[in-house]
Amino acid sequence: MLSSPMPSETRIAIVTAAAARVGRRVAVNAILLATAATPLAAQAVPAGPATPVRDTTVIPDNRLFHRSDLYVAGAFAAVTVALLPLDRHFSQELRTEGLLQNRTVSWFADQGRWIGGPGMLIIGGSMYAAGRVGGIPKLAEIALHGTEAVVVGQAFSNVIKNLAGRARPFAAADTNAHDFDFGRGFQSRDFKSFPSGHATSAFAGAAAVVAETNEWWPHTTWYVAPVMFGGATMVGLSRMYHEQHWASDIVMGAAIGTFAGLKTVRFNHTRTGNKVDRILLGTRVTPTANGAALGYSLTF
Protein backbone atom coordinates (compact mmCIF):
# COMPACT_ATOMS: atom_id res chain seq x y z
CA MET A 1 0.00 0.00 0.00
CA LEU A 2 1.53 3.25 -1.07
CA SER A 3 1.49 6.12 1.34
CA SER A 4 0.50 9.51 0.21
CA PRO A 5 3.32 11.98 -0.12
CA MET A 6 3.90 14.24 2.96
CA PRO A 7 2.82 17.73 2.34
CA SER A 8 5.72 20.17 1.89
CA GLU A 9 4.53 22.34 4.79
CA THR A 10 4.81 19.36 7.17
CA ARG A 11 8.33 18.48 6.00
CA ILE A 12 9.47 22.06 6.49
CA ALA A 13 8.06 22.11 10.02
CA ILE A 14 9.85 18.85 10.97
CA VAL A 15 13.20 20.06 9.58
CA THR A 16 12.82 23.39 11.36
CA ALA A 17 12.11 21.71 14.74
CA ALA A 18 15.12 19.39 14.34
CA ALA A 19 17.38 22.32 13.49
CA ALA A 20 16.14 24.21 16.52
CA ARG A 21 16.96 21.24 18.81
CA VAL A 22 20.47 20.96 17.35
CA GLY A 23 20.98 24.71 17.74
CA ARG A 24 20.01 24.60 21.40
CA ARG A 25 22.43 21.72 22.08
CA VAL A 26 25.27 23.56 20.35
CA ALA A 27 24.54 26.73 22.34
CA VAL A 28 24.46 24.86 25.66
CA ASN A 29 27.70 23.04 24.86
CA ALA A 30 29.33 26.31 23.87
CA ILE A 31 28.31 27.95 27.17
CA LEU A 32 29.63 25.00 29.20
CA LEU A 33 32.89 25.00 27.30
CA ALA A 34 33.34 28.72 27.81
CA THR A 35 32.64 28.42 31.53
CA ALA A 36 35.23 25.65 31.94
CA ALA A 37 37.82 27.47 29.90
CA THR A 38 37.60 30.79 31.78
CA PRO A 39 39.79 29.77 34.80
CA LEU A 40 42.36 28.22 32.45
CA ALA A 41 42.47 31.35 30.40
CA ALA A 42 42.93 33.46 33.52
CA GLN A 43 45.87 31.33 34.55
CA ALA A 44 47.42 31.52 31.13
CA VAL A 45 47.41 35.33 31.08
CA PRO A 46 50.70 36.61 32.48
CA ALA A 47 50.23 38.57 35.73
CA GLY A 48 51.15 42.24 35.80
CA PRO A 49 53.77 43.71 38.12
CA ALA A 50 53.14 42.64 41.74
CA THR A 51 52.10 45.32 44.19
CA PRO A 52 55.05 45.91 46.52
CA VAL A 53 54.42 44.62 50.07
CA ARG A 54 55.61 46.85 52.87
CA ASP A 55 58.03 45.13 55.22
CA THR A 56 56.57 45.45 58.71
CA THR A 57 59.32 43.50 60.47
CA VAL A 58 60.29 45.26 63.71
CA ILE A 59 64.04 45.42 64.20
CA PRO A 60 64.89 45.14 67.90
CA ASP A 61 66.66 48.14 69.37
CA ASN A 62 69.79 46.80 71.07
CA ARG A 63 71.50 50.14 71.54
CA LEU A 64 72.77 50.72 75.06
CA PHE A 65 72.63 54.51 74.88
CA HIS A 66 70.18 56.87 73.19
CA ARG A 67 70.13 60.56 72.50
CA SER A 68 67.53 61.03 75.21
CA ASP A 69 70.18 59.96 77.73
CA LEU A 70 72.03 63.19 77.02
CA TYR A 71 68.94 65.21 77.89
CA VAL A 72 68.44 63.34 81.17
CA ALA A 73 72.12 63.69 82.08
CA GLY A 74 71.95 67.38 81.23
CA ALA A 75 68.93 67.81 83.51
CA PHE A 76 70.73 66.13 86.42
CA ALA A 77 73.81 68.28 85.81
CA ALA A 78 71.68 71.44 85.73
CA VAL A 79 70.01 70.55 89.04
CA THR A 80 73.41 69.80 90.59
CA VAL A 81 74.80 73.17 89.54
CA ALA A 82 71.65 74.96 90.70
CA LEU A 83 71.98 73.40 94.15
CA LEU A 84 75.58 74.47 94.71
CA PRO A 85 74.65 77.93 96.08
CA LEU A 86 72.01 76.30 98.29
CA ASP A 87 74.11 73.46 99.69
CA ARG A 88 74.95 75.23 102.92
CA HIS A 89 71.32 76.22 103.49
CA PHE A 90 69.99 72.68 103.05
CA SER A 91 72.71 71.31 105.27
CA GLN A 92 71.66 73.61 108.08
CA GLU A 93 67.97 72.82 107.60
CA LEU A 94 68.57 69.08 108.02
CA ARG A 95 70.66 69.54 111.13
CA THR A 96 68.43 71.65 113.31
CA GLU A 97 68.43 70.89 117.03
CA GLY A 98 64.93 69.43 116.84
CA LEU A 99 65.82 66.93 114.12
CA LEU A 100 69.10 65.94 115.74
CA GLN A 101 67.30 65.11 119.00
CA ASN A 102 64.41 63.28 117.30
CA ARG A 103 64.92 59.56 117.90
CA THR A 104 62.74 58.46 115.01
CA VAL A 105 64.59 60.65 112.52
CA SER A 106 67.90 59.50 113.94
CA TRP A 107 66.87 55.84 113.61
CA PHE A 108 65.85 56.25 109.97
CA ALA A 109 69.08 58.09 109.25
CA ASP A 110 71.07 55.21 110.74
CA GLN A 111 69.16 52.69 108.61
CA GLY A 112 69.81 54.78 105.53
CA ARG A 113 73.52 54.85 106.26
CA TRP A 114 73.58 51.05 106.54
CA ILE A 115 71.47 50.43 103.44
CA GLY A 116 73.58 52.70 101.27
CA GLY A 117 76.78 51.14 102.60
CA PRO A 118 77.20 47.39 103.03
CA GLY A 119 73.45 46.87 103.09
CA MET A 120 73.02 46.97 99.30
CA LEU A 121 75.55 44.16 98.78
CA ILE A 122 74.21 42.12 101.70
CA ILE A 123 70.61 42.46 100.52
CA GLY A 124 71.56 41.66 96.94
CA GLY A 125 73.61 38.64 97.93
CA SER A 126 70.85 37.31 100.18
CA MET A 127 68.22 37.69 97.46
CA TYR A 128 70.50 35.96 94.96
CA ALA A 129 71.11 33.03 97.33
CA ALA A 130 67.40 32.74 98.08
CA GLY A 131 66.60 32.70 94.38
CA ARG A 132 69.13 29.99 93.60
CA VAL A 133 68.36 27.77 96.59
CA GLY A 134 64.61 28.27 96.34
CA GLY A 135 64.50 27.70 92.59
CA ILE A 136 63.23 31.21 91.86
CA PRO A 137 65.27 32.24 88.80
CA LYS A 138 63.59 35.63 88.44
CA LEU A 139 64.53 36.60 91.99
CA ALA A 140 68.12 35.51 91.41
CA GLU A 141 68.28 37.51 88.18
CA ILE A 142 66.91 40.67 89.79
CA ALA A 143 69.38 40.36 92.66
CA LEU A 144 72.34 39.69 90.37
CA HIS A 145 71.67 42.59 88.03
CA GLY A 146 70.92 44.91 90.95
CA THR A 147 74.24 44.04 92.57
CA GLU A 148 76.04 44.51 89.26
CA ALA A 149 74.47 47.96 88.98
CA VAL A 150 75.75 48.90 92.46
CA VAL A 151 79.28 47.81 91.54
CA VAL A 152 79.20 49.72 88.24
CA GLY A 153 77.82 52.83 89.90
CA GLN A 154 80.42 52.74 92.66
CA ALA A 155 83.24 52.40 90.14
CA PHE A 156 82.24 55.64 88.41
CA SER A 157 81.42 57.42 91.66
CA ASN A 158 84.78 56.65 93.27
CA VAL A 159 86.72 57.94 90.29
CA ILE A 160 84.89 61.27 90.44
CA LYS A 161 85.21 61.42 94.24
CA ASN A 162 88.97 61.16 94.15
CA LEU A 163 89.35 63.64 91.31
CA ALA A 164 86.89 66.27 92.60
CA GLY A 165 88.45 66.37 96.08
CA ARG A 166 85.47 68.11 97.66
CA ALA A 167 85.50 68.57 101.43
CA ARG A 168 82.69 66.92 103.35
CA PRO A 169 80.46 69.25 105.38
CA PHE A 170 82.10 68.28 108.69
CA ALA A 171 85.57 68.87 107.21
CA ALA A 172 84.89 72.04 105.21
CA ALA A 173 86.68 75.11 106.51
CA ASP A 174 84.09 77.65 107.74
CA THR A 175 81.39 75.35 106.30
CA ASN A 176 82.54 76.29 102.81
CA ALA A 177 80.37 74.21 100.48
CA HIS A 178 82.56 75.02 97.46
CA ASP A 179 85.80 73.58 98.78
CA PHE A 180 86.99 71.56 95.74
CA ASP A 181 90.60 70.60 95.06
CA PHE A 182 91.45 68.40 92.07
CA GLY A 183 92.89 65.04 93.11
CA ARG A 184 92.63 65.70 96.85
CA GLY A 185 90.27 62.78 97.29
CA PHE A 186 93.20 60.39 96.93
CA GLN A 187 94.70 61.82 100.14
CA SER A 188 91.84 61.45 102.63
CA ARG A 189 88.23 60.28 102.83
CA ASP A 190 87.38 63.68 104.30
CA PHE A 191 87.67 65.07 100.78
CA LYS A 192 85.53 62.54 98.97
CA SER A 193 82.22 64.32 99.29
CA PHE A 194 81.26 64.70 95.62
CA PRO A 195 79.31 62.63 94.64
CA SER A 196 77.66 60.60 97.40
CA GLY A 197 78.64 56.94 97.17
CA HIS A 198 75.74 55.88 99.39
CA ALA A 199 73.25 57.69 97.15
CA THR A 200 74.89 56.11 94.10
CA SER A 201 74.47 52.60 95.50
CA ALA A 202 70.90 53.18 96.68
CA PHE A 203 69.71 54.65 93.39
CA ALA A 204 71.58 52.05 91.33
CA GLY A 205 69.84 49.25 93.18
CA ALA A 206 66.48 51.00 93.01
CA ALA A 207 66.71 51.69 89.28
CA ALA A 208 67.81 48.12 88.54
CA VAL A 209 64.99 46.56 90.57
CA VAL A 210 62.38 48.85 89.00
CA ALA A 211 63.67 48.10 85.49
CA GLU A 212 63.73 44.34 86.12
CA THR A 213 60.28 44.17 87.68
CA ASN A 214 58.95 46.28 84.82
CA GLU A 215 60.22 43.61 82.42
CA TRP A 216 58.66 40.71 84.31
CA TRP A 217 55.58 42.30 85.91
CA PRO A 218 54.81 45.69 84.26
CA HIS A 219 51.68 46.24 86.35
CA THR A 220 53.77 46.37 89.56
CA THR A 221 55.87 49.38 88.53
CA TRP A 222 53.42 51.94 89.91
CA TYR A 223 54.04 50.81 93.49
CA VAL A 224 57.53 49.25 93.23
CA ALA A 225 59.05 52.46 91.84
CA PRO A 226 57.86 54.81 94.64
CA VAL A 227 59.01 52.37 97.32
CA MET A 228 62.45 51.81 95.80
CA PHE A 229 63.21 55.42 94.86
CA GLY A 230 61.66 56.67 98.10
CA GLY A 231 64.04 54.44 100.04
CA ALA A 232 66.97 55.63 97.94
CA THR A 233 66.03 59.24 98.66
CA MET A 234 65.98 58.46 102.39
CA VAL A 235 69.53 57.12 102.07
CA GLY A 236 70.64 60.37 100.46
CA LEU A 237 69.00 62.52 103.13
CA SER A 238 70.57 60.41 105.86
CA ARG A 239 74.01 61.29 104.51
CA MET A 240 73.18 64.98 104.77
CA TYR A 241 71.78 64.42 108.27
CA HIS A 242 75.07 62.81 109.32
CA GLU A 243 77.02 65.75 107.84
CA GLN A 244 78.74 63.56 105.26
CA HIS A 245 77.43 65.13 102.06
CA TRP A 246 75.96 68.25 100.53
CA ALA A 247 72.65 68.27 98.63
CA SER A 248 74.43 68.54 95.26
CA ASP A 249 76.47 65.44 96.18
CA ILE A 250 73.22 63.53 96.63
CA VAL A 251 71.77 64.64 93.27
CA MET A 252 74.91 63.68 91.38
CA GLY A 253 75.07 60.34 93.18
CA ALA A 254 71.42 59.74 92.29
CA ALA A 255 72.17 60.51 88.64
CA ILE A 256 75.12 58.12 88.45
CA GLY A 257 73.25 55.39 90.30
CA THR A 258 70.11 55.69 88.19
CA PHE A 259 72.07 55.49 84.96
CA ALA A 260 74.09 52.55 86.28
CA GLY A 261 70.94 50.65 87.23
CA LEU A 262 69.05 51.27 83.99
CA LYS A 263 72.01 50.60 81.70
CA THR A 264 73.10 47.47 83.55
CA VAL A 265 69.65 45.95 83.17
CA ARG A 266 69.43 47.04 79.53
CA PHE A 267 72.83 45.53 78.80
CA ASN A 268 71.82 42.18 80.26
CA HIS A 269 68.46 42.12 78.49
CA THR A 270 69.81 43.10 75.07
CA ARG A 271 72.82 40.82 75.33
CA THR A 272 71.28 37.70 76.77
CA GLY A 273 73.56 34.81 77.47
CA ASN A 274 76.57 36.95 78.41
CA LYS A 275 79.29 35.15 80.34
CA VAL A 276 78.42 36.56 83.78
CA ASP A 277 74.78 35.50 83.45
CA ARG A 278 75.74 32.08 82.12
CA ILE A 279 78.06 31.46 85.05
CA LEU A 280 76.08 32.94 87.95
CA LEU A 281 72.54 32.29 86.79
CA GLY A 282 73.52 28.80 85.65
CA THR A 283 74.70 27.87 89.17
CA ARG A 284 72.40 25.67 91.19
CA VAL A 285 72.61 25.36 94.99
CA THR A 286 70.63 22.40 96.30
CA PRO A 287 70.02 21.90 100.04
CA THR A 288 71.08 18.46 101.34
CA ALA A 289 70.99 16.65 104.65
CA ASN A 290 74.63 17.59 105.28
CA GLY A 291 74.43 21.18 104.08
CA ALA A 292 74.19 22.26 100.46
CA ALA A 293 75.38 20.89 97.15
CA LEU A 294 76.75 23.26 94.54
CA GLY A 295 76.29 22.42 90.88
CA TYR A 296 76.66 24.18 87.55
CA SER A 297 74.53 24.33 84.45
CA LEU A 298 76.95 26.18 82.20
CA THR A 299 76.84 26.75 78.46
CA PHE A 300 79.61 28.49 76.53
Question: Keyphrases for this structure?
Answer:
single chain; 300 residues; mainly alpha; Vanadium-containing Chloroperoxidase, domain 1; two-stranded antiparallel sheet; 10 helices; 2 strands; globular; disordered C terminus
Structural write-up:
The chain has 300 residues and is mainly alpha-helical. The protein has a domain at 67-267: Up-down Bundle (Vanadium-containing Chloroperoxidase, domain 1). It is 65% helix and 4% strand. The chain has helices at 8-44, 67-83, 87-93, 97-101, 103-133, 137-164, 197-216, 221-241, 247-270, 275-280; strands at 283-288, 291-296. A hairpin with a 2-residue loop joins strand 1 (283-288) and strand 2. Helix 2 (67-83) packs antiparallel against helix 9 (247-270) and helix 5 crosses helix 6 (137-164).
Counting helices, strands and paired strands, the structural category is mainly alpha
Helix run count: 10
Largest sheet: 2 strands, antiparallel
Question: At the first level of CATH, what is the class of the domain at 67-267?
Answer: Mainly Alpha
Termini separation: 114 Å
> What number is the mean pLDDT?
82
Helix content: 55-70%
Strand content: under 5%
CATH architecture of the domain at 67-267: Up-down Bundle
SSE layout:
Elements: H1 8-44, H2 67-83, H3 87-93, H4 97-101, H5 103-133, H6 137-164, H7 197-216, H8 221-241, H9 247-270, H10 275-280, E1 283-288, E2 291-296
Antiparallel strand pairs: 1-2
Helix pairs in contact: 2-9, 5-6, 5-7, 5-8, 6-7, 6-9, 7-8, 7-9, 8-9
